[in-house]
User: What shape does this take?
Amino acid sequence: MPASDLQPVKRALISVSDKAGLIDLGNALIAQNIEILSTGGSAKMLQDAGISVTEVADHTHFPEMMDGRVKTLHPKIHGGILGLRDNDDHMAAMDQHDIGPIDLVVVNLYPFEETVAKGADFHTCIENIDIGGPAMIRSAAKNYGFVNVVVDSEDYGPVVEELMAHNGKTSIELRKRLAAKAYARTGAYDAAISSWYATQLGEVFPDRMVFGGTRQQIMRYGENPHQQAAFYSNDENRIGVASSTQLQGKELSYNNFNDTDAAFELVAEFDPNVFGPACAIIKHANPCGVALGSTLAEAYKSAFACDTTSAFGGIIALNQTLDMATAEEIVKIFTEVIIAPDADDDAKAVIASKKNLRLLLTGGLPEPTTSGQLIKSLAGGYLVQDRDNQLTAQAELQVVSQKVPTEQELSDMKFAFTVAKHVKSNAIVYVRDGVTVGIGAGQMSRVDSSKIAASKALEAAQNAGDEISWAKGSVVASDAFFPFADGLLAAAEAGATAVIQPGGSMRDDDVIKAADAAGLAMVLTGMRHFRH
Ligand SMILES: NC(=O)c1ncn([C@@H]2O[C@H](COP(=O)(O)O)[C@@H](O)[C@H]2O)c1NC=O
Assistant: This one.
């Protein structure tokens, strides 16, 4: 390493809101003969631990004031950070104004994000916007050639290690890495503030939108091996795959993250207190089987029976604690991931016999009605929309056929329509007795989805040794209206007795007439669930 890339650290400024690791850092800096400047609370904690510190106010000869709004915003601080050590004019100005260089800035910010997450009032959130901290971070990062900036206590160790290894100096590589991280931190901080402010103003889509996130995991690869990928968490704190605890198995891949999220969001539609046990099995972000049951094991077995071929290597989501009976069923075939609110000890022991099977526990279910935004990138920008948080229970169902659905048909129709919400369009879902028996997903024509779902129902029956298709006597849900009667007729031909769909087609009358002619009950929801 060229000698000039190593720069000495003689004076540090510490101003931290989160004081974890502060005393160890202070001791390590003193051991390197580094002078410490520090702000009120940080200085006090260091002094109480017997560490020699100069208060910033004594250094600047200017008191902290206005409830801490002004502490470090002073030319003696910013000049000391920003002055270029290899620029004669800068050094002369520093000399003239008695500005001593500051070579290490250790700052973490007022906890704005946490304050918002706690639901604090407007005034408290405003007071938790840090001004002096980001200013110092940005100054120090700009002068990375000479100055080190630390915004994360995880970097205390690497900085101290370099100081020890290079006799009180640090490398340009370290300073650049710290600078990049510093700007990412202030950027994310401002993103959080601007998005909170927009919410306060009731602006769903402000003029300029900024997204912030913290890298949680770099994956081995993305959707395909030639794509790189990582997961960034935001401050939403939604219960799910990102916040879950992984008990066993390899790290989740990109596709695992995506599929597990789809699986858990689907099963979360079925509150166990209302629906009892529920299970969803997902492949490529689409369900291949979803079922309610009187026990969780029964729900799993029914979901599996819907498409035993596709369920192989699938993702299983459960709406309640994984028990031993269900675990014993699950381990009979190869599964990638199980996600559940919890698992009992006997179930954990059964799953432990499959070393590669990932078991994720979330501690609860996400709330399906929560609002939020979904973001998708495409050439030239981002598409931003609200999360589809409408429940089938909120739909005003309208019976439009001559035949009135039975209670069982109605309950199955609601279940089918809820599942259809989580199936890629065009989505057609056949259900019998709280169990999907055929799912048609992602087709460009609705009639093709109808046919695929019907063929799946026949295949499921044959796999179970039944001669009659499981579509016989089923109900069918469509995520969007039937533009023509053909898709509906395909369902009737397959043996469905009732249909649930949004309605709203120009040809609704023709479709209703066709339903009547085929003797089907038809319910309109007035609610569409396209999913792409
Ligand atoms: N106003 C200022 O000049 C200022 N300078 C530093 N701070 C922040 O004050 C906090 C540390 O305060 P203390 O050491 O008093 O506990 C840090 O989060 C730091 O980012 C400031 N506070 C807010 O802007």
In short: The chain has a mean pLDDT of 96. The chain has 19 helices and 23 strands.
